[in-house]
Amino acid sequence: MESTRAHRITLMDPGSRGVKTRRTHLHLQRAVIVLAVLMVQPQAVCAAGVFELQILHFQNPHGFLQTGDCCDLQASGGQRCSARDQCDTFFHACLKEYQARVVSTGPCTFGSGTTGILGGNSQSLWHRGYDAGGGGVEDGTNGDISISFKYAWPKSFSLVLEALDHDNDTTEPGQLIERVLLSSMLNPGEQWQTYRHHGRTLSLEYRLRFRCDSNYYGPFCNKFCRARDDFFGHFSCDQSGSKVCMEGWTGPECKEAVCRQGCHQAHGFCTVPGECKCHYGWTGPLCDQCVTFPGCVYGSCTEPWQCVCDVNWGGLLCDKDLNYCGTHQPCKNGGTCINTEPNEYQCECQEGFRGRSCDIVEHACLSSPCANGATCVEDPNNFSCICPKDWTGNTCSDGDCRFCTHGEPEPSEGKGESFKIV
Predict the structure, then answer these.
(1) Measured between alpha carbons, how far is 403 from 384 in angstroms, rounded to an integer?
(2) Do 62 and 150 belong to one domain?
(3) Which CATH number goes with the domain that contains 356?
(4) Given its phi and psi angles, is residue 393 left (phi above 0), alpha (psi -120 to 50 degrees) or beta?
(5) In a 10 Å sphere around its CB, with 0-12 CB exposed, 13-18 middle and 19+ buried, how is residue 330 labelled?
(6) C-alpha distances in Å from residue 167, one per residue of 122, 162, 170
(7) pLDDT in the model for residue 14
(8) Model pTM greater than 0.85?
(9) What span, in angstroms and rounded, lies between the C-alpha atoms of 31 and 16?
(10) Would you give the DSSP letter of residue 365?
């Protein structure tokens, strides 16, 4: 572990070796500045994945160290090493950058790990909690080493795996039984890759894999995706780490709600799926109707706050009738109506009538208002028509259908009727 820490310091300050060599004042100042910045900045780093090694089986039939000596006491009676006092075997793994020819010395660039004491000279570890997918007890005696990886996984790597004997009588970290040097490549995934080693002292079977941490994806475990359903997004993650928006949400971060179908894209918006809120100046269920100028009566708009008057209407608020004659027909007794200005009119009266609306009779009978030969009789306020037989109505223009045949009045005897126009 000390070698790992030392290497990490080298990575953070790659010019430190030059500092120690040249001892220049300028470089010392730079080093102090770098250290100060590192102390101020937060040091939390999320691991991208984990390198896993599992010891499956090892066999050291004679109980030898790499030197050819016994791990513990030498036996008497023809056996070189005691069968009662066997090796206390454990393993140490050093993971580093890819090397064509692996060097066992030097820092463990990517990290290191150690098992607990797994057994004596030979041991099979399949019974210690492993299943087809791996994973067993985590007390150090299952032969499992996990090395967290804090950067994008480079796929290619070199591994120095050492089988060691633990000696209670010394302070040494362990006496070397066998050293395995491996350069290989691993793609992230759940599948294990099995390796076998047959050395002069020890035979070994182990397996390796690299798994992305939770929420990390991709061939280098450097694509981050964490499912969420909150203000910052509404999505899950597929197997490649791409965001899959929940129903009703869209956009790169799945933060944009899908509005009600038909909601105007420019004039409407929504904060939750299925909604359709209108921007200022627009209205309607789909926000496709503009709001007219306040007080607009007989007008419409194509843009907010307009008041485009309907036909025959005018004025700022479209409340002035430009066709008062056609709308109200104010002229009576056959008078002709003329629109003069908004909400104003003038009547040209028939002969014998006067007044603003031709409603005052002067000589009503001059215009011969009575039809079908009726007799017109004037009075101080109006006139009346004395109808001949077979005709009726105010101006004797209606047939008297009491004697009609096929819709026409028939001749009948009798006196005419008199109608007064009021």
Answers:
(1) 23
(2) yes
(3) 2.10.25.10
(4) left
(5) middle
(6) 17, 15, 6
(7) 39
(8) no
(9) 8
(10) G
Contacts of 5 (CB under 8 A, 6+ apart): none
Q: Does residue 93 contact residue 112 with C-beta atoms inside 8 Å? A: yes
Per the CB < 8 A criterion, the answer to whether 70 and 81 are in contact is yes
Short-list 394, 400, 397, 399, CA closest to 422: 394
Residue 353's domain spans which residues?
324-360
- Which residue type is seen at 150? K
Domain final position from 339, 360, 381: 360
DSSP character string of 237-293: E-TTS-EEEPTTEESTTS-EE-PPTT--TTTEE-SSTT--EEPTTEESTTS-EEPPP
Note the pLDDT tens digit of each residue in 280-298.
999 999 999 999 999 999 9
> Do the domain assignments include residue 207?
yes
* d(C-alpha 161, C-alpha 174), whole Å: 13
CB atoms within 10 A of CB 385: 27
Q: For residue 301, tell me if it sits in a domain.
A: no
For 336-390, write each residue's pLDDT tens digit. 888 877 778 888 888 778 888 887 777 778 778 888 888 888 776 677 888 988 8
Nearest Cα residue to 323 out of 308, 313, 310 = 313
Q: How far is CA 210 from CA 99, 154, 190, 239, in A?
A: 18, 11, 8, 16
HEC sequence for 129-167: CCCCCCCCCCCCCCCEEEEEECCCCCCEEEEEEEEEECC
Judgement on whether residues 100 and 146 belong to the same structural domain of the protein: yes
Domain tally, the chain: 4
Q: Let me know if residue 35 belongs to a domain.
A: yes
CA dist., res. 309 & res. 81, Å (int) = 113
353 part of a folded domain: yes
User: Domain check: are 57 and 156 in the same one?
Assistant: yes
